[in-house]
Amino acid sequence: MKWTRSGLVAAVLMSLASFTLTLNASEARAEAASPIYGVTIPHGYRKWQFVAPAEEADPLNELRIVLGNPTVMKALEKNTLPFPDGSILVKLAWKRVPSAEFGPASVPGAATTVQVMVKDSKRYRDSGGWGFGRFINGQPADLAQHQTCFACHEARVKNHDFVFTRLAP
Hints:
By secondary structure, the chain is α+β, with helices and mostly antiparallel strands.
């Protein structure tokens, strides 16, 4: 079979497009959403800005940090409440492990959870405008764990738009 230059280019582009569609479809299947809210782990969140530590001692004995997307960072910096739609907070947690080099210090051990809060006042009208996701090993935690998210935030931080985190100085 004889290929013309334009025919070869077209074949390569069609193959590339097919590969891209297949890759995107498999990524979409792998992206698991939380029950109740349909929240997923945001792409690129590990490059977001540091908001604050969120240390958890007993009973979980975890090290935690909170990261924020540009929308929530702007609101935190200006003390804007309620947070605008599009605000996203991600809390990462690891088991606390004593440092081998300095006993009183701790270092991150095994990852335990990724927790996500997404502000969309229309979609999440019944939960203060926030959707919640809790993920273990990249997969959503069970329904029971998600049922407690909003109740806890509502009982304790309703006056701060249901957000525990404050920007670290």
